[in-house]
């Protein structure tokens, strides 16, 4: 019984903690959204004042501030609405006014962060494609080098083989020529021997 009571107390405590955490998260998102909306309001007022002053440097700085405030507003709005928040109509009207001031469509919801992310992804893809091409090129070069070495080895083997065949042929020709020459010398010797023998027989008979 005691264990059951402890388990129930732990369950209620966890539920209370979860409820409190969700409530705090919602309050944080709401505060973040409201702060971003106020910052967008201030940036728009500052931009209007800069335009009225006709100071190009001031206008350029105010435009950057307005672009940054718009980005922060859109990011805060995304988290706020994802957690059940409801966007105020006047804040959306202010966003449309900021877009017009920045030379963008009234309903433009792109942010500099999103654009930067897309640019980074595109850049990463280009770099990856470049690396792949470099690797493929290196592989192709390596294969060509291997083929060149293999072809050179084959050519060398064929050259050695041909030289051995030629050497054997030359040796055979030399052996045949020597043998033939020896046979001729032997024949000449026999002819001389037979000649001397006939002369000796003739002298003996006389």
From TrEMBL:
<protein>
    <recommendedName>
        <fullName>DUF4398 domain-containing protein</fullName>
    </recommendedName>
</protein>
């Amino acid at each position: 019984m005691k264990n059951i009571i402890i388990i129930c107390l732990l369950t209620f405590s966890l539920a209370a903690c979860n409820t409190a955490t969700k409530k705090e998260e919602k309050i944080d998102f709401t505060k973040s959204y409201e702060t971003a909306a106020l910052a967008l309001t201030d940036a728009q007022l500052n931009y209007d004042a800069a335009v009225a002053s006709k100071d190009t440097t001031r206008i350029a700085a105010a435009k950057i501030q307005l672009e940054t405030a718009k980005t922060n507003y859109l990011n805060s709005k995304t988290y706020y609405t994802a957690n059940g928040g409801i966007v105020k109509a006047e804040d959306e009207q202010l966003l449309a006014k900021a877009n017009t001031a920045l030379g963008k469509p009234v309903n433009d919801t792109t942010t500099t962060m999103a654009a930067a992310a897309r640019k980074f992804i595109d850049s990463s893809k280009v770099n990856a494609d470049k690396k792949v091409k470099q690797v493929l090129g290196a592989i192709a070069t390596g294969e060509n080098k291997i083929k060149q070495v293999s072809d050179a080895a084959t050519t060398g083997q064929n050259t050695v083989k041909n030289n051995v065949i030629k050497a054997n042929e030359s040796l055979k020709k030399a052996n045949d020529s020597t043998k033939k020459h020896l046979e001729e010398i032997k024949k000449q010797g026999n002819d001389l021997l037979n000649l001397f023998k006939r002369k000796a027989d003739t002298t003996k008979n006389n």
